[in-house]
Amino acid sequence: MRRVRCMAVNRTIVLLRHAKSAWGLDVEDHERPLSKRGKRDGLAVGEHLARHRIEPELIWCSRAVRARQTWERAVKAGADADRVNYDDHLYEAVAHELLKLLRKTPDEVRTVMMIGHAPGIPDLVEKLAPRDGKTELWNRMDTKFPTSGMAVLGYDGHWSDLRKQSATLLDFAVPRGKPKK
Asked: Helix, strand, or coil here: 167?
């Protein structure tokens, strides 16, 4: 049973770049599946979410095969969400387009997750969170926001009011699965 939560305070935004996709296949970019490493990393994403008790009420997920498979692997490893909206607009979206989509999140949602692509997801973190504090996290993201990179932001307010520099960067992780021996 879910906890009853107060409106418009302590919201969480999880921005995830899909896991590693396969290359060299004779398919359109949108149809590229996860690579072997991507499948392992998708499981690691799910383990990370479960371990940190991050349970989104809503996920906005790209319809690209690699993004959908990332979430499927995460669920297989223990991740959970109330609802997943697969949306064509996340594929090749830039930060301001992703922000518009986040603003459509219903106010009863406390934790929202977005599974998308670079450069949109990393750019959205830059757009939402000012660079004050959390220097080590920003340095890691500046070095690279790789596949399976996951930024967690805090936000106080209604989703429709989400604006540039209105969130706080709380964490940045890159869950990686171990290859089988």
From this structure: coil
Q: Is residue 5 part of a domain?
A: no
Residue 134 covered by a domain: yes
The answer as to whether 44 is a domain residue is: yes
Residue 64 within a domain: yes
Q: Which residue has the tokens 């219903």?
A: 106
Q: What is the Rg, in whole angstroms, of the alpha carbon atoms belonging to the chain?
A: 15
12 and 154 Cβ atoms separated by less than 8 Å = yes
- Return the biggest CA–CA distance within the chain: 49
Give the pLDDT confidence score for residue 8 in this predicted structure: 40
What is the model's pTM? 0.92
Phi–psi pair at 168, nearest 5 degrees: -125, 130
Report the alpha-carbon distance of residue 88 to residue 2 in Å, rounded.
Answer: 29
Q: With 90 as the cut, is the pLDDT of residue 179 above it?
A: no
